[in-house]
Amino acid sequence: MAQVVLGVGSSHGPSIQTMPEMWQRLGEKDTRDPRFDYQAELRSAKPGLEREIAIEIQRERHAAAHAGLAKLVEIIAQARLDIIIVISNIHRVRRDHPHPVFGVLRAESFEIEKRVIEAADLDAKFSGQKRRAPEQLIPMPGSAGLANHLIESLIDDGFDVASVDRLPEGLPLDDAYSFIYDHLLNGAAIPVVPFFLSRDLPNQATPSRCHDLGAALRRKIESWPTDLRVGLIASGGLSHQIVDEDLDRAVIKALVGGDAAAMRTLSRAQLNRSPGTPEILNWVTVAAAMAPKAMTLIDYLPCYRSLAGTGHGVTFGYWK
Fold first, then answer.
1. Which region among 2-6, 81-85, 165-169 has the lowest average model confidence (pLDDT)?
2. Rounded mean pLDDT of 292-315?
């Protein structure tokens, strides 16, 4: 039978993928982001952010983030994984395309998009342009066998899981998944099964439902009749595009303490304060799958990029 031997949680995003000298540009983009009220955030921001956005502090946080990534790379390599399930969400969802609460990509191979963020028009995603940045398409091995097993067995267990057999034309998997290839696998061709967990309202599962999903996911993986070592990766989170240190620290406390009740009762209002923060649900799912093991925290880095408190609660952890 398959065996789950490792769980990983890793932030992704431009705070990690760009040099800190570009964070000011990201902060300027935040002033035009229609998904939240920048001026309201500026008025209510905590004091002391002048220091947080100093380039010296940003450089320290960036260096610490890459030290955390290096630790995860080492841990993943030591686990000798045969296959990985990446739990995250597609960032670019067109309004006329299906957007399931839960879904699995059932494919023997698929393409991921490596974005060149430094050359991006950071406002393009708000103006409806098709291409947000120069991109490179990279082929990735999948596992239709494991994907099909998960879909069928999770449905048997009461979870309505969409079967995604191919990606829409022109929409390869974005940096929620390519980040894993670029920064955690060092280009190793380990088969990946993308598990889609919507972060968007109204089609967003509750924290309690995600916790139930994680427990079921572990059972279904270990009922797969193959002798393989399986890893789970929660890609994304914690709070962003507005940093919420109180929420982040409460989530980390629950993950490190294995506190299922706290994970199940996370405030949906707080999770949805800014568009990226619901990616915390990915971590809740992996935490439940790895229980009773609790998460080991590698680092938490509140990476601010504006006086309004915009930025990213960059976090790295693992279960083994």
1. 165-169
2. 97
Give pLDDT, residue 132: 47
Give backbone dihedrals phi and psi of 82, rounded to 5 degrees, phi first. -95, -25
pLDDT at 251: 98
- Domains belonging to the chain, first-starting first, are 3-319 (3.40.830.10)
The pLDDT of residue 128? 47
User: From the CB of residue 202, how many other CB atoms can be counted at a distance below 10 Å?
Assistant: 6
48/94 Cα distance (integer angstroms): 39
Q: Cβ–Cβ contacts within 10 Å for residue 275, how many?
A: 17
